[in-house]
Design brief:
Blueprint (H helix, E strand, L loop, with lengths): L1 E5 L5 H10 L19 H7 L14 E3 L8 E5 L6 E5 H16 L12 H10 L2 E2 H7 L5 E5 L8 E5 L2 E2 L3
Length: 167
């Protein structure tokens, strides 16, 4: 079971559209969002060029969690394990440090001890593993769960203020 969490800035209208249409990139949460590979999508696309998994498009991905983290508004999702991919969240956090620096307009504040951004994005991409295989090895302790497919309304339960909405 997975969860896609809606934050306080997400409208209940968006959540209701999810109940009607399923979960897709047009109605994902502003809080949960997409997989971290979207942070530098152009670099990611260059790195995955020629890879057998090149079809994975982070601009159309959906970030998932293995609990609702206590949030009142969320989607509960039933997906087969082979439809969920796992990436190393620690690498994603390091990539995010580069975004933070761009916002500050200063280089090296958070990244002076980190590998080059290209290396981090390549390492993030190479950390990719299907969930069913990840569970056999658990190669890293902090996983990021990502789906690269739209999730039909039949595969979700929608909760607002901890109450399940009727489908």
């Amino acid at each position: 079971m997975f969860y896609h969490i809606y934050g306080p800035l997400d409208s209940h209208e968006k959540i209701n559209r999810t109940l009607r249409d399923g979960l897709n990139p047009l109605n994902i949460s502003d809080w949960s969002g997409m997989g971290s590979g979207f942070m530098y999508n152009d670099l990611m696309n260059a790195i995955k060029e020629g890879d057998t998994d090149q079809w994975m498009e982070f601009s159309e991905s959906i970030r998932l969690f293995n609990s609702n983290l206590g949030a009142p508004d969320y989607i509960k999702i039933s997906l087969p394990k082979e439809k969920v991919y796992v990436f190393n969240l620690e690498i994603a956090s390091d990539i995010f440090a580069y975004i933070e620096e761009e916002g500050l307009g200063e280089k090296g504040v958070f990244t002076s001890e980190l590998p080059n951004l290209d290396v981090l994005i390549r390492d993030y991409w190479n950390s990719k593993i299907r969930l069913d295989l990840y569970e056999l090895q658990k190669p890293y302790p902090n996983p990021e769960f990502v789906s690269f497919q739209n999730i039909t309304r039949n595969d979700i339960e929608v909760y607002i203020n901890f109450k399940k909405l009727k489908s």
